[in-house]
Amino acid sequence: MEREAGVLQPAELKVEFSGCPVKASLDVLGHKWALLVLRNIGLYHVQRFNDMLRITPGLTKRVLAMRLRELEREGFIQAVERGPRYTRWGLTEKGEDALPILMTLVRFGSKWYADEVFADKRSRTLGDVFQISYIRQILGRLPA
Amino acid sequence: MEREAGVLQPAELKVEFSGCPVKASLDVLGHKWALLVLRNIGLYHVQRFNDMLRITPGLTKRVLAMRLRELEREGFIQAVERGPRYTRWGLTEKGEDALPILMTLVRFGSKWYADEVFADKRSRTLGDVFQISYIRQILGRLPA
DNA sequence: GCCGAAGGTATCCTAAGTAAACCATATGAG
DNA sequence: CTCATATGGTTTACTTAGGATACCTTCGGC
To answer: Which nucleotides of C are covered by protein (CB under 7 A)?
Structure first.
């Protein structure tokens, strides 16, 4: 009989979980469009409401407004500039720490969904996609 | 004015996207419970239907059945053993390639949601959580 | 003053996910 | 052999998250 998730302890695990860090992370980032909004800000440097709408096919104003408020409330993003004309969003430290998740998603998608990602439909490695210095900057020196 | 997502090209990007690899990856993995089912199989080595239900609070039979079929159809998992009593699920090569995503989620959750992940509520690094050899085995030598 | 763009809300509708009951097959205990 | 229990589901009904669309206010340019 299996044990509870919080008490699971495969051989590779050095600690005992009382909850699951994957589940915890997904409580916020698992909502639809959340990771793509983070991608817009952190990876594409698109900081404004209507610009995000424009570059994110399928995303609606209503949901974007919800995700921005949620990500702000949960400490992933903050207003870099809040004017009457527009607000520019940037990542907090917590948001920056979520970039490695996006990196692994880029890596996965570039390998397995090359047909919809690249015009020539050829798989690519992370090193093919980003400058090495940038990859190091984001992924840092794992496992830290 | 911003360009389309597929034509975006920040300084760090070496290639031009025609679609977004993050978006593509999330088409399957973005569905609720999908990453947690993958976690059950790939990280926790829990391979059977009712075992997954037991260790995954909130997940229902109906959704689990849907996610298993979807993950199988999309090539993330396969039946390791399909008997009359039960089926044991394992990762395909594609599923294994998704483990780095789970790793970064573990890393993120262990740092930012330590209060719900660890009994002592103290943040931990990936190196605190997994054996180094295991981290290397999964994350490999990035950026490849 | 008029127009368009930015950044939203309000209203309604659909699809995804949740809850709970039901069910067939297969042991396992007696 | 028979009964109880577990496994791995499906069915039906319900709730909620998200999609579509219309509307609205503020600002700046002309």
So the answer is: 5-11, 16-21, 25-27
CA distance A6 to chain B (A): 8
| Contacts with B85 (C-beta within 8 Å, 6 or more apart), sequence order | none
Domain boundaries, chain B: 21-92, 98-139
pLDDT in tens, A83-141: 888 899 999 999 999 999 999 999 999 999 999 999 999 999 999 999 999 999 999 77
* Token representation of residue A106: 């880029």
CATH annotation of A21-92: 1.10.10.10
Distance A133 CA to C16 C1' (A): 40
CB atoms within 10 A of CB A15: 15
| Gap from A128 CA to C19 C1', Å | 47
User: Which of A115, A137, A26 lies closest to B34, judged by CA?
Assistant: A26
Pick from A125, A36, A38, A143: which is nearest to B97 by CA? A125
The helix or strand, by DSSP H or E, that contains position A138, with its residue range, turns out to be helix A132-139
The three-class DSSP label of residue B91 is: strand
